[in-house]
Design brief:
- By secondary structure, the chain is an alpha+beta fold.
- A hairpin with a 2-residue loop joins strand 4 and strand 5.
- It has a domain of 166 residues.
- The strands form two sheets. It has a three-stranded antiparallel β-sheet with strand order 3-4-5.
């Protein structure tokens, strides 16, 4: 479970790094290692002098003090350090915005980039309108969305993930690895511009995954992530799939 959990954190971190390539307005992140010792240990990893305690019939079995003799267990967990939204705002000479702004009233290029990115990683657990897993900054009369928290995405595919139901909005998918575009209808020319932008970054995005391959504990986890992102680019390269899976399903409300 620990290996699976660390791979999930790694994939979420890589999603942040991908978005850095796609939008100038993003959260900067770092991957960190957290090491700790569980002094209570594990019942199947007892201290040699306390083997006799591994007997539920023993009167000491449920004694907290007696279990202090158990062998400590060391854990190494990955975690993501993310900068504060106020820091992002200062970096762009902007201000953090904390009010409702409909996505169609947000800066259109960044808004579409955000929607394409969420589709790329298979994330539906967000709402730019209601600031769910999104922050907004305001600059020169325009608001810009900044996505975060991707653990419920298809790319991560965490064991606990479920298809989101934000504001009682039902989606036409049954599992998080199925994609559903959640962006709004825009000028078709803007969609084509964004399509070309993402395709121009394909090699760099896949290299982000490949550069971190050695950090994956499970080879299958890496392969699934690589294939998942590659399939997104296959959609962009196929006119029929692009029309069917993005353009025709873009939201109107």
């Amino acid at each position: 479970m620990e290996d699976r959990s660390n791979d999930d954190v790694l994939k979420e971190y890589l999603a942040y790094k991908m978005y850095e390539l796609l939008s100038p307005i993003h959260f900067k992140t770092r991957l960190a290692t957290l090491e700790y010792t569980d002094t209570r240990g594990e019942k199947d990893e007892l201290h040699p002098l306390a083997i006799f305690l591994n007997d539920s019939k023993n009167s000491l079995y449920n004694d907290e003090g007696a279990w202090a003799a158990r062998k400590p267990k060391n854990h190494t967990l990955l975690t993501i350090l993310i900068e504060d939204d106020k820091v992002v705002a200062r970096r762009h000479d902007a201000k953090v915005l904390k009010r409702f702004v409909h996505p169609l009233n947000q800066e259109e290029t960044v808004s579409i980039t955000n929607a394409f990115f969420q589709f790329m990683i298979g994330n539906t657990d967000f709402s730019t309108a209601y600031s769910h897993n999104q922050k907004l900054i305001f600059k020169e009369g325009k608001s810009y969305p900044i996505p975060y928290d991707f653990d419920m995405s298809g790319l991560v595919n965490a064991s606990y993930s479920v298809v989101s139901n934000i504001n009682n909005t039902s989606l036409d998918i049954d599992k998080v690895t199925e994609r559903q575009y959640r962006g709004f209808k825009r000028n078709p020319a803007l969609f084509e511009d964004t399509r070309r932008h993402f395709l121009s970054k394909e090699s760099e995005i896949l290299k982000i995954l490949e550069a971190h391959k050695s950090l994956f504990k499970e080879a299958r986890s890496y392969e699934m992530a690589h294939n998942y992102v590659s399939d997104f680019f296959a959609i962009l390269k196929n006119d029929l799939r692009f029309q069917k899976e993005i353009l025709k399903v873009a939201r109107e409300k």
